[in-house]
Structure formats: structure tokens, C-alpha cells
Amino acid sequence: MALSTEVVKKDFPILDHQTHGKRLVYLDSAASSQKPSAVLDAMQHYYETTHANVHRGVYGIAEEATRLYEQARGKCARFIGAPSERGIVFTKNVTEAMNLVAHSWGRANLAAGDAILLTEIEHHANLVPWLMLKEERGIELRFIPMAEDYSLDLTDLDRLIDGVKLVSVTAMSNVLGTLPPLRRLADAAHAAGALFMVDGAQYVPHLPTDVAELGCDFFGFTGHKMLGPTGIGVLWAREELLEAMPAFLGGGEMIRDVRLDGWTPNEIPWKFEAGTPPIAEAVGLGAAIDYLGGLGMDAVREHEVALTAYALRTLTERYGDGISIYGPSEPAQRGGVVSFNYKDVHPHDLSQVLDEAGVCVRAGHHCAKPLMRRLGVGATARASFYVYNDEADVDALADALAEADRLFTF
Amino acid sequence: MPGLEDLYREIILDHYRNPRNRGELPTPPARRVEGFNPLCGDEIVVYLDLEDGRVSDMRIDGQGCSISQSSASMMSAAVKGKTVAEARQLIRAFKAMMSIHESRLDGEDGEATAPDPEVKLGDLEALQGVVKFPVRIKCATLSWNTLQQGLDEAAATA
Question: What CATH number does residue A287 fall under?
Fold first, then answer.
């Protein structure tokens, strides 16, 4: 069933609020999405009726809190097509998920001279952990370049992938909307004897996801970009990889036994969840998954392709050469993020002008500085769409851009 | 609610359109200092010629928004030709206008870092409106922090 934004908007209390006396036009969901009442209510209800620490108390509400926390793990597993919930590790966000792999798997498996393959279009979350490991261990980082049409240039893939131990790529560029060919890269990685890791931060909220079908070994995503709360993310990994990996952070929950002269790790996935976890956040993430499931991820994707097509068409028709859009031109082959520069107006100034009209867009380097250098720009403005956005939001953006002319066209 | 007119004053847009002292200086003898705003990616490069305790020449390079670029342009116009001591006074006065009052946890800040009320900011006062837009304060202060870093480095190696 097609998604009705008229109905969906009513589920998001923040969209009733005004900013600068104007309707809130929220076009920054790629940075963080808004939350439906279902998520807010689930977390409020949990705190009001159930809260206790998990995996510790033997009293009623502690057992119920544990049940809800573990139920959320199951929802995450089913939502991404994971074969079992034992591969679902709750983290703080996708950045922590990537760092967990770099610290634990990376330090156990990568030595000086070992190579891993990344891409030029990665978010800092899939760059800096590896740059840190490069400094510490002397590993070699290789990069799949970006092609002129903003896809990945796979011309030299055979040479680049030869001998690497890990291929780690974004499932969707947070700047360009580019959707790399994951299955093809997974097959190439496995043929080269490498593991395949995916940063799914921008993908899971917007497209039906099946980690088994995509051929992933490691897969990270984050709650707050998919209608859930901040403070919770997920690392999914194949169970045998998690079993073999050393623990990451040490403390409560992640141990089976502790003596004064040593310790024994807990079973997976708890081996990687030190300390009291984000319990209410897990409940909220579970509610977000239920909400998205109710909409249907095929319908979500269909809605965003149509809206992205409308945005690309509207902006190009109205501003022609005055607007530079960075990303694939075919809406069905990209995600719903539209990065652009408008005339000579710096994105920071543009964002300030749009804010006056109630339009929220991101301006800056989007935590992808190497990609900005590759694009030859210091920054871009970025409008990104989600389930609650409609054509009126795109029109508001297009109208507000004209206001920038008044101040900045010389 | 502050409006865009508070932020984008005409003199600011003028310095953005026609930046003063734009370019580079040969290094050495000039000192080159880079400043980054990690939030938005703005980059400022300040070239300083220091002679006999005076900023004898200065150039600004880099890229950024109207606030960071105009602030750098106005700074260069205000600081060029001044003594290092006067330049430091201007830095303190400008930061004070941006509501940045430097103090040390050991309580020994005292007179040394308080701005001199006699220091006149002139055109730079147009940037006062930035204070009403807190995320933009870092844009306005980027070049000033970069200049301060350059003066500190020069003092340390003198």
C-alpha cells in the first residue's frame, strides 16, 4: 500500500511545532530523524511501568525489562534479515559498531602490511577507526574511487581487492545518495578471501534490508536515523566471527566470571555489551521497527524515490545552472539525500537563510571530508527526506532558496 | 527573534564580496598559520609578516561562509600595521564582543586577559549581531583564533 504522508505526519508531534513562526519543514533526517508518538510512548510507558536493570534482578519488573530488551534484539534481527538474534550487538551508534570491529576484530587479525579496502565516499565513521589502526599497526588502506557519475568506479577492483583482509563500504552515501553494488562487492571480497563489512546507517532506515542476501559479514546501523531514539545502534556480525573476536569494552554484563587474577567472557552477544545497556532506547528502537514495519519498507522506499525524483526535477527546473547537485541523477538508483550548492552562496549562509523560512537542511562537510575534497568543494547543503516529507516540503525548500538571492547575489 | 538583517549587515556583505588583503605572502619570511572549523569545514590561512614587534603585512587565504570570510577581511584591515601588543588587544576586544571571556581555572586571569575598554573595534562592531546566532560565533572567531595562534607561535620561537 502506498504511503500517505498526510496520515504519517500526524504521528510526529514535532511537526506540529513552528520555527521562526513558520511551519517546520524538516529536511535533515539523514542527520537524525524525528520520532513518532509510538516510539515516545513506548519509552515513556517503559519508564513508568517497567524500568529496572536487565539480566540482574529476579523480581518481576526486572524480568519484564530484560524480556523487553531482548525482544528488541529479536526485532532488530528480523528487520535486517539476520539469521539469529545472537549476532545482534547493541552499541551506542553505528560509529561505535565500526570502532568495535576495528578494535576487536582488527587488532586480532590485522598486522603491519595487511591491507583493507574502503571507498572514497565513506563517512568518517568508516574511515577514522581504520586510520587509527593504520597509525597503530601500519596496516595499508586502499580506496575504491568515485566515478564521475558519483557511483563507485570498479574498473580496478580486481587489483585493489587482491590480498585484502576486509572490504568495508557504506550501503548508501550520506552525501551523494549513491547505493554501491553491495552483493557484487561482497562476492568480490569473499572471492579474494576477505570479509565484507557494511555501514548501513543511511540504508536500513530507507530500504528493505537483508544482510544474508547482501552477503555481509559485519553490518552496522543506528536507531536515531530510523525513527528511534539516540544512544542505541547495532553491530550485526556472523556468529562465528563474534565468537572468535576478543571482547571490546570490559565491565559488568560482558563477563561470565571474574576473579582477582582474571576473567572469563560472557556468551555472545552480551560479551560485547559492557555495563548497563540503553534499555529504554532498545524499547524505543523496537517500537520504531514496528512502526516502519507497519508502513512497509517497500512503501517507504517507493515514497522516497518518488519524492527524490520530484525534488531533483523541481530544483533543476527552477534554478537550472544556478544549482549544482552532487549525486546520481537517476532517482531509482540513489537514496533520498540531495546535496547541492546554490550559486556562490556558502552552504552555511544558505542554511541560515532557509532556517528563516522554517526549512531545516544540513550544511557542512557531512563528516565526509575526503569526499568533499574529491568533489572539490569545502561544503555542501543537503536536504534529506523521510516518511513524513512530501512535495510541499520540497516546494518550501525551492521557494526559500530564492530568498538567498536577495542577500547574496552580487 | 533575531532576523537575518541582524546577521548580514551591509558592511559584512561588502567585506565578503570584496575581501581585503586576500592572498598569500612568501614564507619565510612570512609566518603561515591554518585554522579549521571542524563543524562546517571552513578553512582560514593567515600569513603574517612580523617586523620589530609590528604586524607589517598580512594576507588571508582559505574558504568559508560570509561570516568567517568577512570577519577575516575586517580583521586584516584592523590589524595590519598595528603592533603585536595592539593586535592582541584587538583579539581580546573582539572575543569579548563575541561573549567569549577567557578565564583560567586557577583564578589568575585578572587584568591580563580582560579587554581594554579603550580599544575601538570600529567596523568590526557590525559583527556583534552574530552573538544572537550562537552556532555562527565560531565562524566569526575562526580567523581571530588563527591570528592569535600565529602570534603565540612567533612569541614562542622569538
Answer: 3.40.640.10
DSSP states of A3-16? --HHHHHHT-GGGG
Query: In this predicted complex, what is the ipTM?
Result: 0.82
Same domain, A61 and A113: yes
The answer to whether A87 touches A105, Cβ cutoff 8 Å, is no
- Find the DSSP H helices in B2-133: 4-7, 10-17, 66-79, 84-97, 110-113
The count of domains in chain B is 1
CB A15 within 8 A of CB A388: yes
Return d(Cα B19, Cα B71) in angstroms, integer.
10
Residue A76 is among the residues annotated as catalytic for this protein:
no
pLDDT digits 0-9 by tens, A133-180: 999 999 999 999 999 999 999 999 999 999 999 999 999 999 999 999
Most confident of A125-139, A245-259, A366-380, B120-134: A125-139
Give residue B126's domain range. 4-157
CB B126 within 8 A of CB B11: yes
Number of compact structural domains in chain A = 2
**Beta strand residue intervals within chain B, DSSP E:** 31-36, 43-51, 54-63
Distance in angstroms (rounded) separating the CA atoms of residues A158 and A146:
16
Per DSSP, the residues of A356-393 read HTTEE-EEE-TT-HHHHHHHT-S-EEEEE--TT--HHH
- The answer to whether residues A191 and A211 belong to one domain is yes
Closest residue in chain A to residue B40, using alpha carbons only: A364
Grid cell for residue A35 = 520520532
* Chain A, chain B: beta-carbon pairs less than 8 Å apart: 48
Side-chain-facing half-sphere of A32: CA atoms under 13 Å: 10
Owning domain of residue A195: 40-294
> Which chain A residues are within 8 Å of B40, Cβ to Cβ?
347-348, 363-365, 379
Peptide bond into A229 cis (omega under 30): no
The Cα–Cα gap between B31 and B50 comes to 8
